[in-house]
Each structure stands twice: as C-alpha cells, then as structure tokens.
Amino acid sequence: AERLKVRPPMVGRLGSDGRFYLFFGAGLELDLCRLVYGQHLVKETLVDTIRDFTENPSPRKPLVLSFHGWSGTGKSYVTSLLVKSLHRDGMKSRYVHQFVPTLHFPHASHIQVYKDDLKRWITGNLSECGRSVFIFDEMDKMHPGLIDAIKPFLGNSHVMFGTNYRKAMFIFVSNAGGDQINQLVLDFWKDRKDREDIKLADLESKLSAAVFNSQSSGFWNSDIINEELVDRFVPFLPLKRKHVGECVRSELLSRGLSLGLGGDLIEEVVNAMSYFPEEHKLFSKTGCKTVAAKLDFYL
Fold first, then answer.
1. Which of 113, 178, 236, 299 has the greatest number of C-beta atoms within 10 Å?
2. Residue 98: which domain range?
3. 8-to-31, 63, 126 alpha-carbon distances in Å
4. Residue pLDDT, tens place only, 158-186
5. Is 70 known to sit in a ligand binding site?
6. Is 73 one of the annotated binding-site residues?
7. Is 237 exposed, middle or buried (CB count within 10 Å of its CB: 0-12, 13-18, 19+)?
C-alpha cells in the first residue's frame, strides 16, 4: 500500500490586508530540526534567510548562498531540503538546475564557450520561472574565472539581458574553507567552549577570504567575492561521534528497520568510521557520508 505523506503544519502570519501568508521556510525549519545533525549555524542562518527572501515581494537582488565544509557534513543534503521547501518536486523540478564542473565544464580550454552557454541557460530558464534555483556543486573543482560569467545576474539591477531575475536563488557548494571551519571548532574544544556558541560572524569572513585566495577554488580572485555579491557564507561544522550515531539511527529508520536491533550495531558503525585529530579522534573525517555503506557491511 502506498504510504501517506504527513504534510507539515502550515505556519504563517495574518497580513494587514486580512490575507494569510505562508512562511515558505516552515517546512525547511521542520526538516532541518528532524533530519540534520550537529549544524546549529545552518539551522539558524537558513530558516530566517529563506523566509525573509521569499516573503519579500520585490527583493533588491537574487539570494546568493555559499555552503562550505568537509565532505559528509550535509551540504548537498541540506540543499535538497531547501529546494524541496521551495519547489514541490525538489531536485527533480524543472525549475531547479544543478551544475557539476567535472560533468558540465570539464575542459579548461573551453571556458569562453562555457561562459556563453551559462548566460544563455540562466537567461532562458529565468524567462520561464523567476523563482528558478541554480546550484553550482563542487565549486572547488570549478575552473577559476568561469563563475564570474554569472556575475551580472547576482547584483541589484532590476533587469538584465531582458529578464527580471531578482527572485532567483543561486547556491554554491564547496569543500573549500573546510580546514578553517574545522580549526575553529577544534579551538573551541581545546578552550572548553561549547560548539553551539560558535557564531556565523566567527566564520563568514574567514570563508570569504579562504575561497578568494585559494587557487584551487572556483572563486579564486573572483569578482563575485570581491564585490560581496554572496549574501551568506554558510559553514557546515565537522560531525562528532554522537552526530554519526544519529545518522546511523536515521538510516536504520529510513530502511524500515527497528532500532530494537540494538545499540551495539549503532556503536559498531560509529566505531568503524575514521576520526580526527589522530590523538583525540573527535570528528568524523567523512561526516555521515559513508554511514550507509558501513551499515550495509555490518547488517
């Protein structure tokens, strides 16, 4: 029998005109609370940012987000949850467009062709839907200079290339800046500070500088960074053992398996992961990325 999907409660406010306005971030907030572990900055930043942007009937510019952190910390997963909160079909929506450098822009010698293609692609899709979402994955593998082709779409001009684009959303996903994030979390631990006391302000400038100055970053010397066109640099913190355990529990439930299988199984999977720094083994080197494969082995 087909499972019934339980819709999250509608959250909104009553406008001065007497109409009820939905908070687009309501479903996202619920998903982040239930499904994402160890990322308080992500939850605090995204819900308010998405809500403010989607409620604004006339934003001055598109929303530009840049996600940073080591592999397995949830960047792609959170991107999918965010997109699902905006478009019913999520990542499969015709209004959501994902670019992967190694797939879509493999040859450094073709950068000018890629730039022209990107401009045409974005213009065409924004003409069809002003709320289109453009995702640029693996930005640390993007050829430097290529991403600046989309700079005209990210500013505050009302119309560009004959298209009103201010309600669009651009999301950049990158491992760049992960070392800076991990070092700050480690410093907090050494100083016996709670990681939940880390603020966005502690990391945003570090991430901006890291991607701008790194020659292995698609944002190296980028005008997009230099002209401060990114609205939020969102850091994904390294995951502790307890967060990996929560991922294992979530994976068991997603497979329809009972948690009555015992804590020993969860502990085995948690212990099978690799951790850093070597002397303390505090944080998972791959986040939760290999949890499913490890669980397959132990099952």
1. 236
2. 17-236
3. 9, 25, 29
4. 565 556 689 999 999 999 999 999 999 99
5. yes
6. yes
7. buried
- Looking at residues 79-101, what average pLDDT do you find? 95
Is 250 marked within a binding site?
no
147 and 254, same domain (yes or no) = no
The reply, when asked if residue 69 is annotated as ligand binding, is yes
Q: What is the chain's alpha carbon radius of gyration, rounded to the nearest angstrom? A: 20
Please list, in sequence order, all residues whose beta carbon lies within 8 angstroms of the beta carbon of residue 251, skipping any fewer than 6 positions away.
291, 292, 295
Is 25 annotated in some ligand binding site? no
Q: Are residues 29 and 150 in the same domain?
A: yes
CA-CA distance, 110 to 106, in Å (whole number)? 8
Nearest to 44, CA basis, from 171, 177, 187, 201: 201
76 labelled binding-site residue: yes
Residue type for position 90? G
218 is in an annotated binding site: no
Place of tokens 């900055």: 41
Tokens of 268: 């085995």
**37 and 131 housed in the same domain:** yes
Classify residue 130 as exposed, middle or buried by CB count within 10 Å of its CB (0-12, 13-18, 19+). Answer: middle
**Any binding-site annotation on 74?**
yes
Number of domains in the chain: 2
pTM of the entire structure? 0.88
Of residues 58, 71, 93, 6, the one with CA closest to residue 239: 71
Both 97 and 162 in one domain: the answer is yes
